[in-house]
Amino acid sequence: MPHLPLVSFRSPFWGLKPSRGFPRFHPLSTHSKPHGSSLSRRNHEAKQKRQREKQAALEAGIAGKSKVRGQTACPWLFEKNLEGLLPPAYSPRYVEAAWYSWWVREGFFKPEYQLPQATGETFSMCIPPPNVTGSLHIGHALTVAIQDALVRWHRMCGDQVLWVPGSDHAGIATQAVVEKQLWKERGVRRHELNREEFLREVWKWKEEKGGEISEQLQALGASLDWDRECFTMDAGSSVAVTEAFVRLYEAGLLYRSQQLVNWSCALRSAISDIEVESRPLPGRTELRLPGCPTPVSFGLLVSVAFPVDGEPGEEVVVGTTRPETLPGDVAVAVHPGDSRYTHLHGRQLRHPLTGQLLPLITDSAVQPHVGTGAVKVTPAHSPADAELGARHGLSPLSVIAEDGTMTSLCGDWLQGLHRFVAREKIMSALRERGLFRGLQNHPMVLPICSRSGDVVEYLLKSQWFVRCQEMGARAAQAVESGALELSPSFHQKNWQHWFSHIGDWCVSRQLWWGHRIPAYLVVGEHTKVGRRKRMGGLDPDVLDTWFSSALFPFAALGWPQETPDLARFYPLSLLETGSDLLLFWVGRMVMLGTQLTGQLPFSKVLLHSMVRDRQGRKMSKSLGNVLDPRDIISGAELQAKLRDGNLDSTELAIAATAQRKDFPHGIPECGTDALRFALCSHGALGGDLHLSVSEVLSSRHFCNKIWNALRFVLNPASSSPTPPACLSPSSPMDAWILSRLAHAAWECERGFLARELSLITRALHHFWLHSLCDVYLEAVKPVLSHSPHAPGPPQVLFSCADVGLRLLAPLMPFLAEELWQRLPRRPGGRSAPSICVAPYPIARSLEHWRQPELEQRFSRVQEAVQALRALRATYQLTKARPRGEMGPGFLSPCRTKGWRRSGVSQSGARRCRMGREAGSPALTLTVALSSSVLLQSSEPGEQGLFEAFLEPLGTLGHCAAVGLLPPGVAVPSGWAQAALGDTAQVYMELQVTGADWRGREGCWEEGKGRVRESEEKGMARGVRQAADEADAGGTEKPEPSLFFRRAWWSPGPSCPC
Predict the structure, then answer these.
(1) DSSP 67-130
(2) Is residue 699, in this structure, part of any structural domain at all?
(3) 830 and 783 in one domain?
(4) Which domain holds residue 984?
(5) Are 873 and 845 contained in the same domain?
(6) What count of Cα atoms within 13 Å lies in the side-chain half-sphere of residue 169?
(7) Radius of gyration of the chain, Cα coordinates, nearest whole angstrom
(8) If you ran DSSP here, which 8-state letter would residue 544 be given?
(9) What is the β-pairing status of strands 924-937 and 961-964?
(10) What is the pLDDT of residues 421-473, one digit of tens each?
(11) pTM for this entry
(12) Which of 834, 852, 659 is nearest to 747 (CA)?
C-alpha cells in the first residue's frame, strides 16, 4: 500500500492542528545508560534515601514552623506555616499535625459556635461509650468515621451540633483486666484485698489508661465537644443511676427474686446474655478451662440407665452431655405420645447414683425423636428444665456452687470437687454400678463466658430483675408505628422478635467495680430501696454495666436535673452504632428512655456492619487481629505491642504467629484521612466488613492524587478567584468539569441525606480521580503552559478545588483543611476561618452548572480517547515519550541472534538480551515516530462534537495533531484505524521523525523517513546490510535501506554475545 504524504489530505480536513502539549522532536541522547540488577539496586537505594530526606525535611518543617505565624492569608491560624509551596509529596504526618488542637482551641466543635450559615436547627448525637478497659480497635474507628462524617456535614450545613463524648466503666471487663494485671505484676488475687483496696487499684488503672481512648479519638479527628465529656462512674452518672433504679422500683418494674442466671464461675458473678459466647462443637472437643487441672472433653453424649422401681431388668436410658449435673436430677420426662414409654406412665425410677425414687413424668415439650426420647430434669441448672419443673411442681436441687465446685447435696464423695473433675468420678461410678450405657460424639453448642473463657453455668441466685414486658411492648410499637426508624430496615424483624419474647432482665452483678445497688438489707432478705443511705448494710452487688449505659443519651445531658442541654438536645437526632448492639444496648435505651423521660431517646437508629479481619474472623486480642487505629494511621511494628499487652504466654504465642503471617513487615503509615475514607466506603446494607490494610493504602494513594492536583491548581489559581455563582465556563471542557462538579455535589448531598456514606465516597473518588485529575487537568495543562493563558481554566480549577475540598471535608478533614487553607481568598466578604465551619456546597446552588446532556455527549469523546490510546498501545507508543514523538522502536544487533526489532520502553533504549546479561551495552537503533490523527463520523452532530473537543482529544490521546475527515471523503491509505461503534472511525498516521543509533563508539546520524507495519522486515534487512558492510571494515556511507536518506558508520566493538 503506497504511503501518502500528510499534505495531500490537508485541504478537506476540518481544523487539523498540532496539540499544544506536544513540542517538536528532540534528538535522543547518545549517552549510554547503565542497566541490569546493579542499576535497580542503586535506583532503589537512591529512592529510599530521597524518601528519608524528604520525610526528615517535612518533620523538620513541622517542628521549626510550629510558632505563631506572621501576616498570612489566615492571621488567626497558629502552628501551621501555609506561606510556602506545598511539599512535593503527600505526608499524612505533615498534613495532620497541629490541626486538631487548633480546632478544639477555637471552639469549632461546640454547639455555641456562631456559624454564619446557621439554620436554627439542632443535631445531637452521643458516641457509643467505649469500654475504659484499654484502646479502641478498628470497629470503634468505623463508628467514629461514620459519626464524625455526619456530624461535620450537619455543622457545615449550619446546624447547631452537639456530639457528646464519653466512656463506659465496663464492670466485668475492667475488673477482669485489673485482676489479671495484679496477678501478672504482683501475684495477688482480688480476694486477697478488701473491696476498698481493690477499687483504689481500679481507679489508679483508669487514670493511667483512661486517657488513651481520648487520644485515639483525637487521632481519628472526632469533632467531639470535649467540655461535655462524661464517664459512667462519675458523680453525675451515679446520681442518674440511683434515680433510675428508685423510679423503676417505685413503678413496680424492678424486684428481687431467686431465678436462674448466666453464671461465670471464674468471675463468681452473673453475666449478661451478650457476654455469653455460643461456641458450636462438631463432636468431641477438648478445652482447657480456668481452674481445671486437666483438659475437659465436650461434644459427647453419655447414655445412663435409670432402673424402673419394682420391675427388675426394666430401665429407661437417658442421654446427657452434662453427667456432672446427675446429682441434681429430680425426675425423668418423656413425651405423652411416645408409645415406647406408655406402659411406664406414673411409675417411679431409681436414681443411678443415689438410688432415690424419681417420678417419670410426661410433657409435650420433650422431643421423642431426639436421643432415646427420655430426658433427665435438672431444674437448678437448666433454663428449659426449670420451666418444665415449674409446670410439674418439682423442687430444684443446686449441686454446683458459685465457684464451680460440687455442693454438699452431692454427698461427701463429690463435695468440693471441681465440677469437671467430678464428671469423671461420676462416669467411673456409673461403670462400676453397671448403669453406663455408652458414649458417642454429639454436636452441640457450648456457652462460654467471653470475659473469662470458662463454661457458663446456670445457677439459682437471688438477684435484682427488671420487668421488661410492658416496656418492651412500647419499644416494639415504636418501630411498628414508624416513630422509631431502624436503618437498614431488615433489622426490624430481629427487633420485633426479641421484644415479643423478652424476659425479665437480671441487673445485679457480684462484682466490686460498678454502681452499688441502692438497696439496704434491713432484716434477713428484706430490703429497702432509696436515694439516701438508710440503716442496714448496703447490698454488696453492683448494677449491670448495660443499666448505666442504657441511661447514657439523657444522663450525659444532665438528667435527672432539667438542664439547658437536656431541653435543647434531647431527644437525640440520631443514634449510630454497630448492629451487634441493637438489642442489648439500643433496645434497653429505648425501654428505659421511654419509661424515665416519657419520650423516645432518639427517633432514628443507623446500624453499621461488624468489622472482621480479611479472613472473616471476629476481632480478638488472643488471635492477634485487633488493630489499634493509630497503628494504621502512623504505621507500627506490632510484635512489641503484643509483648507489652496483658495476654498470657499461650495467647501471646498464638497472636504473635497470626501477626507475623498477616503483617510480616509491620503496617505502613496510611494516615487518618485514608483510614476514614476506606471505612466509610463500605455500605451499611452489606454483610460484615472485611477490612485490609491494602485497602487503606489505596485510599492513601487517593490522598496523594488530591495533593498533587492541588499542587498544580495552586500555581495558576494565584489570581483573585471568582465566586461560583459568578463563574461562567469559557470552553466546552470548562463546562464539562463544572457539570461533573455539580453532579458530585448532588450525589454527596443525596448520600448524606440517606446516611449512605459509600455513595459519597464513590462520588468523590470518581470526581477527583477520574474527572478532575485524569481528564480535565490533563486537558488544560497545555493551555496553562503558555503565557499569557486564558483566564477561564484557572478560575475553573479554583472552583473545583474549593468546592471539591468542602465536599471532601467531612470524610477527610485533615487533608481538606491543609489544602483549603492554601487557596487564595475571594475578594470581599468574610471567609470562614476553617473548612470545618465553612458552608457545605448545596446542590441547588450549583444547579446552573449542571449539563447532563453535555456529560453524556462527552462520554463519546472519552471513547475516542480510549480508542486513540488503544492504537498507541498496539504500536507500542507510550505516554512517556517526549511530546510530539511516537515512542522509539528498536533494532538490536547481535551476532548470534541477528538483528531483532524490540518493542518500546520508557527508558528510550533497548539492548540485546545477551548484552544485558553481560552487563555491557550493545548497539541500539532508536526510531522516533510522530502520530497524526483523523476522526470521521457519519453523524453530523457527532462530527460537531469532535470539532468542539479537538484540542482535548489530541492532548488526552497523546497525539501530535488531530483533525476531522468529513463524511464521504476517501479513507487515507496506510493509516492505522479503529472503529468507534457503528458511526465513527479513528485513523492514525505513523511518521518517522528521527532516528538514533547508539553504541559505545559509533552512531547513526539523524535521518528522516516513514515506517509502516508491512515494511518492518525490510527495515531490519536494510540495517543488517549496513552492519555487515561495517563489520567488513568499510568506511563508506552505506545505504542501509530506503528509510534513511543518509547514514554513516564508524566501526565499534562487536556484540558481547
Answers:
(1) SB--S-S-TT-BS---SSPPPSS--HHHHTSSHHHHHHHHTTTSTTS--TT--S-EEEEE----
(2) no
(3) yes
(4) 866-880+929-990
(5) no
(6) 27
(7) 39
(8) -
(9) parallel
(10) 999 999 999 999 999 999 999 999 999 998 888 999 999 999 999 999 999 99
(11) 0.79
(12) 852
